[in-house]
Every structure is written in structure tokens, then in C-alpha cells.
Amino acid sequence: MKKHLLTLTAFLLAIVTANAQEVKFEEFDLENGLHVILHQDNTAPVVATSVMYNVGGKDGDRNRTGFAHFFEHLLFEGSENIGRGEFMKIIPANGGTFNANTSQDRTYYYEIFPSNKMELGLWLESERMLHPVIDQVGVDTQNEVVKEEKRQSYDNRPYGQILKVLGENLFKVHPYKDTNIGEMEHLDAATLEEFMAFFKTYYVPNNAVLVVAGDIDIDNTKKLVRDYFSEVKRGPEVNRTFPKEEPITETIKTKAYDKNIQAPAIIAAYRTPGFATRDARILDMISTYLSGGKSSVLYKKMVDEQKQALTVQAVNLGQVDYNIFALFAIPLGDVPLATLLEEMDEEIVKMQTELISERDHTKLLNQFENQFVNSNSSIAGIASSLATYYLLYGDVNLINTEIDIYRSITREEIQAVAQKYLNTNQRVEIEYLPKNDDQ
């Protein structure tokens, strides 16, 4: 009976996915190099205006880390035509919402407005790009904001230093070794001239993509985009020549300490190919197979059945140049960290030596089909995906076709990728321990 239910679920989901509306879009470039993507969906009176800049934590001087994240905040300060602090008042006053976020690879700003306020969204983003106010008052204000964010999200949060520990141990020469939020002493030491130079290098139209999605008229939107953004001057071309990491060929064992935790954790981390590769997508499937929900292999075994772990995870952290595939577990009671690692390794070895079952393979395909449908279920999600696929993947139409890549992944490929990347001599093993007065 269970087999029939699984088959029926797969069949129904395949119908839903096959009938999911294709995300149609138009692309064009302004003379200043700004790439523009428009998506029309008139089913609801909502529009998203967003700009993604090709700048993240990995960019800039390594003695001035955290600049991209800093600018995520700084570019809300105001412009020549928007008073200080007014940016974040204008949007809700006009029925909109907004946010921004920064990764190691890009910075993303967006607003969601009623569709009759679409022009306001374009004006706000053009102001941010054309002539923001970058002065000492704004720098000092945002410096304190960033420091408070670091205290809350990293320094004083349990397990908040894990990404920092992973970066430091997996990368020796690539700038992924540095945290996205940066070092506070770097921001303290930076001059106003350095901040202005960073803006002129990276926040230029030829290093960005503008997406307008939702209840729009295409011809009118094209005209408005040209009206608001054509005036922005083209910037220098950004050339990236990041050093490449040497492969890890022997197990690296280390310890890290966190004053905010009482329970230790074990981490096994691998440096793997960047997220645009087929192998990275296969590793997505492997991580989901291992710990994608309470019915996953590691959760059922180590949390439910053997009661060895409070939590267990396998994650594939996506980045442009290198991904991070990591196994993570917190013991239940006095279970040794070494035991947790052995149990996780046992499941990796099974994947390397045996094909996963057809049932588990079908379940994986269903999970990724569901994720695909959900990612395109909102205007905000579509806008983000369009920008990401253009800027970081180099193929906007992946918003419609990436699911076909996942559908084509075989059990044999899953086994081969596990054999290729997930070996003990290719990883860093980290005991993540409570910090006491002696450390």
C-alpha cells in the first residue's frame, strides 16, 4: 500500500510541476551596462523592484573585510534627494515592504509595492545607485549598527561562530576564508575615502541587474527604467582573479571554542565545487537524502532510533567558487563526538558502496519538485530567482529549466559524487566545544 501511495504522490506532483506556469521574462541592457529583466504577472496588484549587485564578502581588500555587508546598511542612509533615515519611512508609508541581504558573492536590495507604486520603487533604487550620500555621519551610524548585529548574530549567539570556523579551516588563500560580516577593526580603521572608492568600484550599473516583476505593463516599465537609470554612469569593469585552493588530501583535525554553548558539537566539512556545477546539485540531493526532514536517513537513525543526537544535519552551503558540504551533530547526553562522526560516516560509506533505493530516489525527486514549485510561487521569489540566475549562474532561464537538471540525476551519479568528494582524507574535522576560562 505504501508503495502505491508513493507512486501516486509522485504522479500527482509530476502533473502539478508539468502544468506549473512557465516564468516568462524579457531582458535588455541600457547603454551604461545595467542589465534589466522584466516579468509580467497581472494576477495580483503587486510589483517587486529589486537590484542585485555583483559584490559580496569575498570582494575588496582583505585588510578591509565586511565592506559589502556594511554597504547593505549604508545605502539606506539616504541620497541627494532622500533625507537621512527617510528611505525606510517612504516605503511603508506607500504600502510597501523592503529588505536587503548580503552573501559572500552578492548584495540584494528589494521592495514589494502595490503595483501603482512601481515607479516609486524604480526611483528609490536609482537614487541608491546614482547619488547616495556617503559621509562620515552615515559611516559612524552604520558602524554601530553592524557591531550590534555582529554581537547579536555571531558573538553572543550559541554556535554563532560556526561559519567563521568553517571558513578559516577550509580556505587558506581564497577570500571565503574571511567572514561575510568582516572584522570590526577593519571597519573602524577604514577612511571615508576608502568607502567611497568601494562604492565607485562595485555599485555601478554594469555590475548589477535590475528586476521588475509583477503587475506591470512591459512597454511602460521599459520607458520608466530608461528614464530613471540611463543617467547613471558606467563604472570600471570588475576583474576577479581569486587564488585557487589546493585540494585537501589528508584529514585536518582541529578544535574550536564557543563561550555561548554548553553542549559540544562535531563538524566534518568538505570543500566542494561551486553551486552552478552539476556535481554541486548532486551534493544538494545527498544533503537532502541524509538530513532533509525528520524522515531522512541521519535524523531517523541518530535522533529517533538510536537517540544519540539532539540534532544532526548535512548541509550543502552554496557559493560561486566553492561550496561547503558539512556534517553537523550535537550529542544527546554523554555520547562521544567520535561516535556521532562514526555514525554519520557509516551512512556516507553506504552511499559510496551501494545505490540508494529507488524509493529513496523517487522521494528525493519529489522533494526537489516541491521546492521548485514553491520557489516560483510568489513575485518576491521570482524576482530573487531571476536576479540570481542571471548574475551568479549566467543563465536566467534556469528559473524554468533547473528542475530538469535535478530530474536527470541518477542513483549512479549520487553514488559517484559521494565517492569523489566525501572521503575522510578530503575534509576538516572540527570539535566545537564549550569555552571555559582555560581556553
TrEMBL record:
Stretch forming the signal peptide:
1-20
What InterPro entries would the database entry show?
A: Metalloenz_LuxS/M16 (IPR011249), Pept_M16_N (IPR011765), Peptidase_M16 (IPR050626), Peptidase_M16_C (IPR007863)
Gene Ontology terms describing biological process = proteolysis
Keyword presence, Signal: yes
Please provide the record's keywords in A-Z order. Answer: Hydrolase, Metalloprotease, Protease, Signal, Zinc
Name the domain of life this protein comes from: Bacteria
Peptidase M16 C-terminal domain boundaries: 190-367
Q: Which Gene3D superfamilies match?
A: Metalloenzyme, LuxS/M16 peptidase-like
Any single GO molecular-function term of the entry would be: metal ion binding
Which Pfam families does this UniProt record tie to the protein?
Peptidase_M16, Peptidase_M16_C
Name all Peptidase M16 N-terminal domain ranges: 36-176
Keyword check for Hydrolase, yes or no: yes
- Give the similarity note: Belongs to the peptidase M16 family.
Q: What is this protein called?
A: Peptidase M16
**Taxonomic source organism:** Hanstruepera neustonica
